[in-house]
Amino acid sequence: MAEIVMGLGTSHGSQVSLTPDWWAKHGELDRKRTRYEELLTGDRTPDEEELSLETFQRKYEAVQQAVAVVESILADALVDAVIVVGDDQAELFTEGNMPAIAVYWGDTVLDLPRDLSDVPESRRQAMWAKHSPVETAYPVASDLGRHLVERAVEDGFDVAQMREQPEGISIGHAFTFVRLRLMRERVVPMIPILLNTYFPPNQPTARRCFAFGQAVRRAVESWPEARRIAVVASGGLSHFVVDEELDQTVLKAIEARDGSTLQSLPEEKLQSGSSEIKNWIVAAGAMEHLAFEEVDYVPGYRSPAGTGCGMAFGRWR
């Protein structure tokens, strides 16, 4: 039978791939996507040292080392396919067609170059890690992908299934990041599992995500062919406001195989960028049988309001 033999969790936000001289500039974007002025008067504002270029440099180096570690782990695992659990931010999904959970199982999936004309400069500087500069087709383990859909439906999950992309629309950055920064030269067929973590009213709850992860494992183990499968959770943790307490709760619960805590995380905490924690919750449900260890956690503050990204990296084995 097929078996999930290992897994990874990785943050994928721009700050992960953005040199430290851009961090403060990137923080300026948070004025429009957070309660910025209110946050300035709160009790979680970072001190000046946290916002120094020296601290930015130290944290940037730690993040690059963590990415290198998880890249090496994936390369050494020699798996046959990678199930990537990521959120779709109105990329393949549209406002008029927004499933809660979808599985892509076409023969290939396309990464298309991003039009950078309307992209803020700080995001543009990190786009190398989000989309290829030329159209690129990634192989998909389509037979196993279809099987996941069929077994999930049998298991009570009404998942959407996708075999084709809309013309001119790329697979989202949650998936291309894994290809560009973790697979690099050794491209492994992937199965994208797309979650609508961002957009009401049909975001899957933490409880549903954990249960779906368990269903993914059952589906894989019911596949008759011997295959080594990895699961990668792409995204998170807390952002656009850093919440170290939330992040540590998540990481410690995953390490302790504490599904109860993961399923009971308050939904109001899992909104906006922090909703990507649900990608990790799916992975934790799929890998209850494996031991988790944290590779690194870097609270990446980038503004006086405490905005930024809780950048986390871990492995299941």
**Rg:** 18 Å
Taken from the alpha-carbon principal axes, the silhouette is: globular
How are helices and strands ordered from N to C?
EHHHHEEEHEHEHEHEHHHEE
Number of E strands = 10
Mean pLDDT: 97
Largest sheet: 8 strands, mixed
Question: So, CATH architecture?
Answer: 3-Layer(aba) Sandwich
Please give the structural blueprint.
Layout: E1 3-10, H1 23-28, H2 30-33, H3 36-40, H4 53-77, E2 81-87, E3 101-104, E4 108-111, H5 121-124, E5 136-139, H6 142-154, E6 160-162, H7 173-183, E7 190-195, H8 206-221, E8 228-234, H9 244-255, H10 259-263, H11 277-286, E9 292-301, E10 308-316
Parallel strand pairs: 1-8, 2-7, 2-8, 3-6
Antiparallel strand pairs: 1-10, 3-7, 4-5, 9-10
Nutshell version of this structure?
Helices cover 35% and strands 20% of the residues.
What distinguishing features does this structure have?
single chain; two-stranded antiparallel ribbon; 8-stranded mixed beta sheet; 10 strands
